[in-house]
Amino acid sequence: MGYVFAFDHKHKKPPMSLKDLLGGKGANLAEMTSVLALPVPPGFTISTKACQDYLSSGWPEGLTGEISRHCALLEKTIGKRLGDLAEPLLVSVRSGAKYSMPGMMDSVLNLGLNDKSVEGLASQTDDERFALDTYRRFIAMYGRIVMGVDASHFERLLDIAKDWDGVSNDAEISVDTLRRLVRRSKEVVESASGLPFPQDPTEQLRGAVEAVFHSWDSPRALVYRNREGIDHNLGTAVNVQAMVFGNRDEQSGTGVGFTRNPSTGEAVAYGDVLINAQGEDVVSGIRNTEPIAVLSEKFPLVHKELIKTFRRLECHYRDMCDVEFTIEQGKLWILQTRAGKRTGLAALRIAIDLTRDRAIKLTRSEAVQRITPEHLDALLHPQFGSDESRTVLTTGLGASPGAAVGQVYFSAEAVEDAVTRGERAILVRNETSPEDIHGMAVAEGVLTARGGLVSHAAVVARGWGKPAVCGAEALLITGSSFSVGDVVVSEGEVISLDGTTGEVFFGARSFIVQEAPPELATILSWADKIRGKRVQIRANADTAADALRARGFGAEGIGLCRTEHMFLGEDRLPIVRAMILAETAHEETQALEALYDAQKADFLEILEAMNGLPVNVRLLDPPLHEFLPDIEELIVKEATVGLSRDEVNLLRAARAWHEVNPMLGTRGVRLGVIKPGLYAMQVRALVAAARERLMAKGKPIIEIMIPLTVSREELALARGWVEEAIVEAATDVASRLVISIGTMIETPRAALMADELGEVADFFSFGTNDLTQMTFGFSRDDIEGRIMGPYLGMALLDDNPFETIDVQGVGELVRLACDRGRSSNPDLKLGICGEHGGDPTSIGFFVGAGLDYVSCSPFRVPIARLSVAQCLIAEDNLIS
Ligand code: PEP
Ligand code: MG
């Protein structure tokens, strides 16, 4: 197979399905030319394969010959020749990868002009000014992109030219000055690059094609692909196309249109035009554009043809399209089309409308597939306006989506005080701990300098739907200010956070909060119908308020209630500490009883909120460091203002319990083993609450989950305590209570020993946060700060495994544990409750692994409903 394909090449398949080979732009140009017979300026596409071969082993053999054959064909079709003295053909050379990478790669326009053909263009158009202006633009563009000359040289020349003529607008520069500008531009190219500006169009073309190939690996393209998860090996196609000019005269123009309104989804053509202008004038925003509707007055026939073309494109692609067009002396040309980018609201409306459109008849499955997680994110969380340009102060991890604006404060207490005064506050910390929870609860957003996507701050913020940026390494916090490089932001100053992109801005940005439109419920109900009973969606929720919210979002149960989070309130933390640090049995029993009352009240509310749906309660799993007082802070206090008696005791106990690796220390079931009575107390509280719900004619369904087990013996021991406590708390109603007992699978050993664990478990829930931490040996709190960036940058990892499940390693353990667990217990229920439960790509893996449910934060529930349905559609399509 060759490397080059004319737009009208007869492919065996519809060209629009050949994006792998032709790139998105090339595939659509071929489709519009060969299938739809639209007025597309002719041209050809150099395939992505040519780019791949070029980048791996240099200019491919045979490519030169193919390009020159296609150039000759193009010249024949148009009846003009490249470099011709009388009537030159000019071409554009544009990048076009399989996936759209807007503005990330290079393009060269007006190629083919030289000192001779510029005269040809002048006489052909009878417009010397136009020809010279086109030539000077070409020299600057080619010089910058192909020959590496800094753009500022050309900008300076243009400024000098305007000064020379005493004008302020490019369009007013005189012909004589333009002639000098052309000469000076060529001189600049030669002195800056050491090479003369090439006069031979064949040489120009080769240079432009190579530059586009290289731009695939430009730093900005690499960053973009990393962020969008686009394969670095795909390469870009190059489209060489005859130029048409929207800047010929007042009968010409250029524009970009959408077949429907991309903001609201309204079924009305939408877009901008500029009369007597080239595409780059629209993009650069120098001149104000006019709405597309003005064409109906100025060019009624063109307008009619354009609207008809929009409809044809929409019916053909069965989607809203984005169309670039040019009018050259009254003739309409279509330059490009693709599925149009749209807001979340427009995506929902368009998908639903297209199911009702008789010519398009989108199916409901197709409609569900048209919605992306990003569309839902944008509807569920406040968003910054996209048109505002702002300088980014620093970037961390987008840990919890949404936009937040507020004054910065550096402690939870200061945040609380500020909010009481009526301010909007953002909590800025190195990292958060349970002690900060009261500040996080009232803050607009959270910014941390350290910690990753499953750090305390990230998990809590996501659970509450609060925007958070974590691990912003460049942030240096010193007392009541923070700095990023030279910029210092003091307490009380305003910043804006984008928890979706991880960007932090100085000052207040405006943002939009949207009500979920009714179309959201329609699409999600279609998604639920597709999902049926195959995979349940649950939520991770620790309070009744979270549970109610999750239910509102469509959760079918709670997959993880972290009981330690119930103890994070200021009034409760001291009791948990007292329990952990108790030195006598009496002290411990006292603390446990105090906890019993608090727990029972919380459980009652949660069971009521989730009446009739399963509630999975995890017994206490505190990595101790999250609950102990900060030793350093106490030491400082001791040395400065002194400690109270309680604090002296606390410091002593905290030192005694201090562990070097708390994440691998006294946590999970291990804490239960050394604190006999702890789990029994929790189960008694839960069962007593369930009993009360039963008496009130409620329908409690409970699952009791033991964390961090690694062996059958350990789980059997814990199960024994649980069963005893159930009998103790509810003998009279034991037979009427629906209770199952199971464990988390959070360590590689637990996964490997799943057959043994399955013998004593009714269910497994994969704790993929810890499982990832322990499988990689990557500390979930530290690794994303220093290591993850370089690892992703150097492609040592494809994705951050705390964000998207590592299918080969961690995923293999999940699959193996499912098989082994079910081999010893065929009725074993399987779920996942790590943060991956809300990640669409990971959800695809879990659905494929045959899990019964995925559990995620309440705000991710709609996304999980959509993603599971999309996976099942894809699976069904594969089978049929
Ligand atoms: C997990 O480890 O995946 C999990 C859900 O537990 P936690 O994040 O509370 O450790
Ligand atoms: Mg865990």
Which small-molecule species are bound to the chains here? phosphoenolpyruvate, magnesium ion
What assembly state would you assign to the polypeptide chains in this entry?
single chain
Number of helices: 35
Look at the structure and give the mean pLDDT. Answer: 92
Q: Numbering strands along the chain, what is their spatial order in the largest sheet?
A: 14-24-23-16-17-18-19-15
Uncertain stretches of 5 or more adjacent residues = none
Task: Count the beta strands.
Answer: 33
The main β sheet shows up as:
8 strands, mixed
Q: In angstroms, what separates the terminal alpha carbons?
A: 31 Å
Gyration radius, rounded: 32 Å
Helix % is 40-55%
Which strand-content bin applies to the residues?
Answer: 15-25%
What spatial form do the alpha-carbon principal axes imply?
elongated
Structural class, judged by helices and strands? alpha/beta
Q: How would you describe this structure to a colleague?
A:
It is built from 35 helices and 33 strands. By secondary structure, the chain is an alpha/beta fold. The longest helix is centred in the last third of the chain and has 25 residues, at 585-609. The model has no long low-confidence stretch (mean pLDDT 92). Magnesium ion (MG) binds next to helix 30. Residues 560, 562, 746, 767-770, 833-834 line the site of phosphoenolpyruvate.
